[in-house]
Write a structure and sequence with these properties.
This protein has six helices and five strands, in the order E-E-E-H-E-H-H-E-H-H-H. The chain is an alpha/beta fold and about 170 residues long. The protein has a single domain, classed as 2-Layer Sandwich (Nucleotidyltransferase, domain 5), CATH 3.30.420. The protein has a five-stranded mixed β-sheet with strand order 3-2-1-4-5, with helices on both faces. Strand 2 and strand 3 form a beta hairpin. The model has no long low-confidence stretch (mean pLDDT about 85).
């Protein structure tokens, strides 16, 4: 799945972030072409509602490019009836990794490794609010607006998307 334009393939995943009293969970959607995180959400519960909030937080989810492929691993949150119904309602085509194939979602694993080593592990996150604040700053500002990606010609994802659209 090598996209040739924005909003052709979105990859989604969930991860946990340790806090003083256990952990909280982060769900996110990444545009495979621009490497931009287009939607994310944080929750105390790892459930379909978390995955759905991340999807609904992606502005393009209301009117995606025709045939946008939504790729996830086989976690139950992404296969739930409410989640799959929302994908179809939004015109997104659900696609899941092959069973036992860790390479299908390697780009997502790479993102959350970066998130954890450059953000979560360096913060003294004590609770949900800390993670909410820090992950929003990391994703919305640092990752999307400032972090240079060699695969994008050494520009940040948001700038790459803007250049692509000629704005």
């Amino acid at each position: 799945m090598s996209p040739t334009y924005p909003s052709q393939v979105w990859r989604v995943d969930l991860t946990d972030i340790r806090v003083t009293q256990g952990c909280v969970y982060l769900a996110y959607a990444l545009d495979s072409f621009t490497r931009e995180i287009v939607g994310w959400a944080v929750s105390k519960c790892i459930d379909a509602a978390l995955a759905l909030r991340a999807l609904n937080n992606a502005p393009q989810a209301c009117c995606p490019a025709p045939g946008l492929l939504h790729h996830s691993d086989q976690e139950s949150q992404y296969g739930s009836r409410v989640y799959v119904d929302r994908l179809r309602e939004a015109g997104l085509m659900p696609n899941m990794s092959r069973e036992g194939n860790p390479y299908d979602n390697a780009r997502m694993a790479s993102f959350y490794t970066t998130l954890k080593t450059e953000e979560a592990d360096l913060q003294d996150d004590r609770d949900f609010d800390d993670v909410q604040r820090h992950s929003t700053a990391f994703i919305g500002q640092l990752h999307n607006e400032e972090r240079l990606h060699s695969s994008l010609g050494s520009v940040p994802p948001a700038e790459f998307a803007t250049q692509y659209h000629g704005a």
